[in-house]
Amino acid sequence: MNSFTALLTACLVAAASADITCEDCTIFGTNMQAYLMSAESIAEQIEIIVANVCPGATDPAGCESGIRENWEAIAMAMYPVFLNAEDLCMKLGACAQKSLVALPTCDECTGSVAAIADMISSEETINEVVAFLQGDGFCMGDADCSASAAAGMPLIMPVLAGVLTENAAQYCCEQSPSAVCC
Fold first, then answer.
1. Structural domain of residue 130, as residue ranges?
2. What sign for the dihedral angle of Cα 27, 33, 36, 37?
3. Pick from 72, 108, 143, 172: CA 20 to 30 A from residue 26's CA?
4. In a domain, 179, yes or no
């Protein structure tokens, strides 16, 4: 499993605590993945990337056009591969011990979002995302696409990680089965 599996495993933030149930984790992970792949969330992601990444690009208009044309397809390619709730919950330890029964606290949930945001903005994770997109995951050998992935994802991933951290309490409230942080 790639370390990019942590991307948006903010959906699985509750799993980072040793006191969270496997069921809570997988429900939260499944809910967050569905949310992140929704038309509403994709539209929001596009606006965030356009506003925060494209102004600093060599060709801001080309960046905006490329994001608006391609982000939905990129997200739909990445999220199913890297956001499998069962795999992520196992990796994070929530499903490794079947005796866990406590509900997450708001601090556990939001703190885990911040930790995962740090992971998804790491160089290693970004490199894995770029390699996935450059291969059969999205670009399929197209040189221009590969160059865009290599140039864009190192800028995009930290921005999305920042949004996760900033909105952690909202995600924990709306996507967790126990509505933590509400």
1. 3-173
2. negative
3. 72
4. no
In a domain, 66, yes or no: yes
**Could you give the 3-state DSSP secondary structure of residue 11?**
helix
For 4-62, what is each residue's pLDDT tens digit? Answer: 333 344 444 444 444 567 888 788 888 888 988 999 999 999 999 999 999 999 999 99
Secondary structure (3-state) at 16: helix
Tell me the residue type at 148. S
For residue 178, tell me if it sits in a domain.
Answer: no
- Report the predicted TM-score, pTM, of the whole model to 2 decimal places: 0.81
In-domain check, residue 88: yes
Q: Enter the tokens of residue 65.
A: 């056009």
Q: Alpha helix (H) ranges present in the chain? A: 22-36, 39-52, 60-82, 85-92, 106-120, 123-132, 143-166, 168-175
Please say whether the dihedral angle defined by the alpha carbons of residues 83, 87, 92 and 94, taken in this order, is positive or negative. Answer: positive
Query: What total number of domains does the chain contain?
Result: 1
